[in-house]
Amino acid sequence: MRTFNLTGCRPLWFASCRQQVKSEIVGTSWWFSMPRNSSLIGIVLMVLGSAVLASKDGTVKTLLGQIGPVQILWIQFAGTFLFMALISLPKHGWKVLRPSSPAKQFVRGALNVGAVGAFFGALKFIPLADATAMLLFAPIVVTIMSPFFLGERIGLSRIVAAAFGFCGVLVILRPGFTGDPTGYYIGLTAGFLLGFYFIANRRLAGDQHFMLDITHNALMGMLALTPFVLLLWEPVPTSANLKLGVIVTLGLIGQGFLISSFRFAPAAIISPYSYTMLIFATLIGYLVFDTVPDAISWLGMALIVGSGLYIAHRERQIIKVKIG
User: Fold this and answer.
1) What is the pLDDT of residues 104-157, one digit of tens each?
2) 3-state secondary structure (DSSP) of residue 28
3) Cα 51 from Cα 278, distance rounded (Å)
4) How far apart are CA 93 and CA 80, in angstroms?
5) What is the pTM of this model?
6) What mean pLDDT is predicted for residues 188-198?
7) Where does residue 2 rank: exposed (0-12), middle (13-18), buried (19+ CB within 10 A)?
8) Residue 161's closest CA among 305, 44, 51?
9) Which of 9, 178, 183, 298 is the most exposed place for a label (fewest CB within 10 A)?
10) What angle is formed at CA 323 by the lines to CA 149 and CA 25, rounded to 5 degrees?
11) Among the listed residues 148, 304, 116, the one whose alpha carbon sits nearest the alpha carbon of residue 225
12) Quick check: 300 and 169 in contact, CB under 8 A?
């Protein structure tokens, strides 16, 4: 499985890997042995996963005044790697430490680090909902860049949808927006990097079992961050230890819900519900940080989400045609 992982990336480009999900995840854990008889269960799991991951991001934002984003990110990657290595070791042995195509895996891990790191950095300056909206631009980046990096053809309708999504970004980036404008450009960088991370996922699809892929993604991210952490590490306040544990735990639980959701419904049905993360991010921003997007912000978010939903719809139609 290549479109999501346990280190913070969101399930925003699912439709293209539907068959891979079916073939790889069934039977890997006890919950995948349950009967596939309800799309509603899959949708509920996707929404729960989005809520949990938005809560994780909100927890990160509360810590940024005490710990730097690089340090938080390294701890998240390290915790994820240790957990995944422990549960993968019985089946895959020492392969958990020997990724296939290590150079390509490292590049992908570095893109993931850059995307999540930029997202965490943006949270220092701007509201959670705004940063999440910028991150949701990633699928549109994939659509724009897929002809160049994946050799895929895109029709005029998807090009227009991508243009509307980019207009949404420009609306959010308008001059005079509340908060430090720097944060919005950092958030936009996160969206672009996440888009290229998704492209890297597509390029590496099928190289190894998805459990190893998740483990190695966390390992490579941890390794890519280690030189910076050695330079920037500061003592972790005792009061922050609990929140750091919550961040790693929520990340694992959230992604567990997301992976489980594919047992009950096709990816093309479930993927649009990943955009509920923006709703939860807005709610958490209001309840915890007393921030609410204004009308123009909602317009930009609507353009981004609408563009992504249309692209997902077109992907679903293309898959139906290919399947017959």
Assistant:
1) 888 888 898 899 899 999 998 888 988 888 887 887 788 788 888 877 777 778
2) coil
3) 9
4) 17
5) 0.74
6) 88
7) buried
8) 305
9) 178
10) 75
11) 116
12) yes
Q: For tokens 């500061």, what's the residue?
A: 234
Q: Which of 28-37, 79-88, 289-298, 301-310 has the lowest mean pLDDT?
A: 28-37
- CA distances 55 to 70, 197, 289, 297, Å, are 19, 23, 12, 21
Radius of gyration of the chain (CA): 19
What is the token pair recorded at 192?
């672009």
Per-domain residue ranges for the chain?
38-323
How many residues can be counted in the chain? Answer: 324
Give 207's pLDDT tier (boundaries 50, 70, 90).
low
3-state secondary structure of 126: coil
What is the identity of the amino acid at 281? A
Structure tokens at 191: 């969206």
C-alpha span between 35 and 202 (Å, rounded): 29
Q: Residue type for 207, please?
A: D
Question: For residue 258, what are the CA distances in angstroms to 95, 193, 255, 273?
Answer: 25, 21, 5, 11
- Residue 223 burial class via C-beta count within 10 angstroms: exposed 0-12, middle 13-18, buried 19 and up: middle
